[in-house]
Amino acid sequence: MILISKSPGETKRLGKKIGKLLLPGDTVALIGELGTGKTVFSKGIAQGLGIKRNLVRSPSFVLVKEYSGKIPLFHFDLYRLKRAEELNTLGYEEYFSGKGVVIIEWAEKAKNFLPEEYLKIELSFINENERKISLTVKGEDLKKRGILCQ
After folding, report:
1. What is the number of structural domains in the chain?
2. Is residue 29 part of a domain?
3. This model's pTM is above 0.85
4. For residue 75, how many C-alpha atoms fall within 13 Å in the half-sphere facing its CB?
């Protein structure tokens, strides 16, 4: 599915809509250049999960932040990751245990560490304000739940 966002507000609203559909154990892989709106999208997902509006920030100086909501959120930002193997020092497998939702910004840096099932969201520039947002479901469970049909 391909969508066009005309503003950061629209990007956040789309994230919120998707956040309301996510369940514990779901993973969202965000891919896109710097400034395309990955963190804005993450803030929307967090709102959809019932996390306070201004709480979520880009965890660029740490690899993961945890937030409490109706469903826990584990927010990874791999921007500063030099080698994917650095994830092993975090015990990253625990985050995929099904206790919460996992969002991974810069997910392309750790593609071999992603679970078998996830929602892949690619954001790209159209112009200064508009973004192309491509959503792809990887795995049968998310497809059966019709997460992109909502």
Report:
1. 1
2. yes
3. yes
4. 27
Return the CA Rg of the chain. 14
Which residue has tokens 């690899």?
63
Backbone angles phi, psi at 30, to 5 degrees: -100, 130
* Average pLDDT of span 126-144: 88
Q: What is the CATH number of the domain that holds 49?
A: 3.40.50.300
Range name among 87-101, 108-122, 134-148 with the lowest pLDDT average: 87-101
| Domain assignment of residue 69, yes or no | yes
Whether the pLDDT of residue 59 is over 60: the answer is no
Q: What share of the chain is helix, strand, coil (3-state, %, to 5)?
A: 30, 25, 40
The structure tokens 């059966």 sit at 144
Domain that holds residue 42: 2-142
Asked if 74 and 101 count as a contact pair (C-beta separation under 8 A), the reply is yes
C-alpha 33/C-alpha 138 separation (Å) is 21
Residue 148 lies in a domain: no
